Hints:
The chain is mainly beta. It has one domain: Porin (Beta Barrel). The protein is 6% helix and 57% strand. The chain has three helices and 16 strands. Strands 1-2-3-4-5-7-8-9-11-12-13-14-15-16 form a 14-stranded antiparallel β-barrel.
Amino acid sequence: MSxxxxxxxxxxxxxxxxxxxAQLAPIPEEAGVSGFxxxxxxxxxxxxxxxxxxxxxxxxxxxxxxxxxxxxxxxSGIPLANFELAYTFGGKRTQVFAGNLLxxxxxxxxxxxxxxxxxxxxxxxLSVGYLFTSIPAEVWADPYVAxxxxxxxxxTASGARxxxxxxxxxxxxxxxxxxxxxxxxxxxxxxxxxxxxxxAALLDREGDQQQFKVTYVFKVSEKHKLAPALVxxxxxxxxxxxAHDRTGVEIKHFYTGERVIFITNVGxxxxxxxxxxxxxxxxxxxxxxxxxxxxxxxxxxxxxKWWGAVTLAFFDEDSDIDFYDTEVAMFGLSAxxxx
Length: 339
């Protein structure tokens, strides 16, 4: 695996760790630097016909034997690292921050966010950030090519995110994200199939993506919290056969004990696509399920300020068109520290 691929893999499993602490935390009154860092090693097994490899290593099989078959499995060991770094302006309850995020596990979509947060008198917090792809993912310029090598191309996304949390001192959090997705060489359906221009245009993966997420954190007891969420995503892509609306639910459970923290995250979603796919002569629908478990041991390294963490994750996208099926399984061991 190339150095570039390994560098980008740094955020893969540990992105789950940052998601575990995704709720907006109160901003301190004192000036200073804060954040977290997570370092470790892991293993990933993935099945995908769409991602070439840079974002997650060499997981895209090339060449493939058929554009009508499910993807084969590829595995790799990976290093892990992710972070958030923030600076608080004293007495103003205002922070500037930067960190990496896991946007979409199935698509191996990772982003970096830089922005500013402000806490108001009612303890609510407003966060405004700019999202961008710091190292592009590589996808296939034309995924629909069999029995010969496919060309890799960069996929990037950039945009903005607004989060308003702890509204009125409650557990309510609202989040809106808008991004533009770009594929450098979009050749879907043109290389081997030679589709007419109008049909190939239906497969275009570029366009806009908007997401609205509503989360509420319930404090069940001193040690337990539940955070259910509704997620609505509009993929307004240029290709009508690729454009779709996705509706999902998520629920996180947080257990905080004297020594251990246990975080469970379960997500379900379904998508309906806008138009018939010109290759498969069917309008695509798919269902996703994702399950992730993180166990953090505050005393894994004795008196050290570092905590030990174990992460297990499984994500599956089941499409009514076999070619688009995707599956990702992950395991990671890491050391986590807040500062």
